[in-house]
Amino acid sequence: MIDQELVWILKTLATPPGALILLGLLGLLSARRRSGRLLLWLTLLALYLLSTPYVSGLLMQPLQAHAPWRPARTHSEPPQAIVVLGGGRRIDAPEYGTDTLGPLALERVRYAAWLARRSGLAVIPSGGSPQRAGEAEARIMRHVMEEEFGVRVLASEETSRTTWENAALTRPLLRQHGVERVLLVTHAWHMPRALAAFTHQGIQATPAPMGYSRPVSGAAVWDWLPRADALEESARAVHEQLGRLWYRLRRAMA
Q1: Which class does domain 68-210 fall in?
Q2: TM spans, by residue (predicted)?
Q3: For the purposes of burial, counting CB atoms within 10 Å of the CB of 135, is it exposed (0-12), middle (13-18) or buried (19 or more)?
């Protein structure tokens, strides 16, 4: 079994900006040769393109294949609970004096609470402490949903560190509470990988994606201006594609 910390290091080096920094360093080390200079220019070009809203939008769109959930889309047997996946914490947030949810996790929790109020379903948050420091993310999510959104939480899965573990460790909780069918809440770009992991575990999950990335036409000048948030979206898209490939390999080896 590959150590999870090693996986995170490799993931960081295989996705932007880590991959671009590595390529740039290789180019610098061989800058006296034509191939080294070419690598430097290609790295700068890749950095620019991945930092533009147009290119980041192109990378995001194939991942957002699932439409927003509507009750009419559900099969004859309705979902029995909502599972919402964690999206990151802020450890020791000084304004709260404790750990709190990061922006992605808070977006997911808000949408899960919105669904819960309209459907009457209870929520199961899933997420542990990936760096083995601070409070489990699902525990923070539970507190926010109960205390701030007034939503009933059925149970919380507090030990997972990856999307794969989200699914594997949520399954026994669902069985314990007699839940067979769930609504699965996560960002639209994360849904294909998350849904594949839950399906692999035999969980009947209906996708309820949120937080769609808006496509841009490329016709406006600002669609081609480099922005930090566009580079972040490109990095997420690359990470998701690599993650989906890794999960296919895991299923093939299982």
Answers
A1: alpha beta
A2: 6-26, 38-60
A3: middle
